[in-house]
Design brief:
With about 400 residues, the protein is of the alpha/beta class. Helix content is about 40%, strand content about 15%. The protein has 16 helices and 13 strands. It has helices spanning about 5-15, 30-35, 50-55, 60-65, 80-90, 105-115, 140-150, 150-155, 160-180, 185-195, 205-215, 215-230, 260-265, 280-295, 340-350, 380-390; strands spanning about 20-25, 40-45, 70-75, 100, 120-125, 235, 250-255, 305-310, 315-320, 325-330, 355-360, 370, 375. Helix 10 (about 185-195) packs across helix 11.
């Protein structure tokens, strides 16, 4: 079994609150994490039709079967159970009584805010980070990291990424979203998701995407929102403040797993990546995702943005902490060119003393300290986040 970095945080939260809720994509390892961390707890999978019907029709009777608490998987399938869990934990005042998992973040967060506010910790388990990959003699190549992605079963069971991602898309994405959206034309929806994958790392122009697919702008916006709620894609918002320049306000689009994005682009062999025009976008997706994973594994929700103004100056990532801003440039090249940080230098002059530092994430393997920035490989992102939050 792969040890997850978030495990100590999960244990700490369970020791201080009666309920812990772990959300994340399907197959990101939520069930395995919770059952390994709390092996003595009873377990119920609410995807099972019989258990789901029992919990829905007789929630009080269902909970009576778990007098010592339990792990309840996919709790969003029975939202009315949350109110009864609230009654239970208020009566018993026992820490770590229930561990809940869910894979639909917006719906679940809304339900929890109504029923379990102040009673549950919210943690997010994303696919494996680079630091969590099974130990080997050397770090996989950049193309391998993109192609393999981070879903634990792909690594633990040595699955073929294209086969695994094809199954994942048909089994989870289409099934889950068909229920949520009542999609009648699955071929059109698949075209939409594939075209969205072709926009990783780019500004999201919803009208352009809708026109390319042949649906309305409202439909495209709704579909993106559902993909985001189901942990398939996420939008990175721009950072803007009244600094005397008009900044771009459209978000950038990324996927929660690069293997799925690559498969949707038609990349079925690792060799396809070397000359692929979107390899740089996939590397940027991978790096941005590593920052999100590093914060999530610490039980924190980061304040991450990108910066781009009307003059074309851009920072791929801007990390905001209070008044301080840390700028990140992302380059897939294995060597550091002399002008790699030129855009960041211009932005530093614009933002002046707001900028606390700058980092280059690149495709090489060695960390370097330059006079005005640090350069790190993908494997160094977790340590960088630790230093920024110290």
């Amino acid at each position: 079994m792969i040890t997850r970095a978030i495990t100590p945080v999960l244990q700490q939260r369970a020791a201080s609150l009666p309920v812990v809720t772990v959300t994340g994509p399907r197959q990101s390892g939520k069930t395995t994490l919770c059952r390994m961390t709390f092996p003595e707890m009873a377990y119920a999978n609410l995807e099972r039709p019989d258990l789901r019907a029992f919990a829905h029709d007789d929630p009080q009777g269902f909970l009576a079967n778990y007098p010592d608490g339990a792990i309840f998987d996919e709790i969003q399938r029975v939202p009315n159970l949350l109110s009864w869990i609230q009654v239970d934990v208020d009566q018993r005042q026992q820490m770590g009584r229930f561990i809940l998992t869910g894979s639909h973040q917006f719906e679940l967060n809304q339900q929890i805010s109504q029923s379990l506010a102040g009673r549950t910790a919210l943690l997010r388990l994303l696919p494996l980070s680079v630091a969590e990959l099974p130990a080997s003699a050397s770090l996989p190549s950049i193309d391998s990291l993109i192609f393999m992605g981070g879903y634990p079963r792909v690594h633990a069971d040595a699955l073929s990424p294209p086969v695994a991602m094809g199954d994942y898309f048909e089994t989870y994405v289409q099934r889950d979203l068909r229920d949520l959206l009542e999609i009648r034309n699955l071929a059109l929806f698949e075209k939409f998701v594939r075209l969205a994958a072709g926009r990783v790392g780019q500004l999201l122009n919803m009208q352009s995407l809708a026109a390319d697919v042949g649906v309305s702008g409202n439909t495209a916006g709704h579909w993106i929102s559902i993909l985001e709620a189901s942990y398939i894609v996420f939008r990175l918002p721009p950072w803007f403040e009244n600094i005397g320049k008009r900044l771009v306000k459209a978000p950038k689009l990324y996927f929660y797993d690069t293997a799925l994005a690559a498969w949707l682009m038609g990349i079925t062999k690792i060799e396809h990546l070397a000359a692929h025009p979107l390899r740089g976008g996939l590397f940027e997706n991978l790096a941005v995702l590593e920052f999100f994973k590093a914060y999530a594994n610490r039980g924190e929700r980061p304040n991450l943005h990108f910066y781009r103004d009307s003059a074309g100056q851009e920072a791929d990532l801007l990390i905001e902490a209070g008044r301080q801003l840390h700028l990140v440039e992302i380059k897939s090249a294995q060597t550091i060119s002399s002008d790699a940080m030129r855009p960041i230098s211009n932005i530093r002059r614009t933002l002046a003393d707001r900028v606390s530092g700058a980092t280059l994430v690149y495709g090489g393997n060695e960390a370097q300290r330059r006079s005005d920035f640090s350069a790190i490989p993908l494997a160094g992102i977790s340590e960088k986040v630790s230093s920024l939050t110290a």
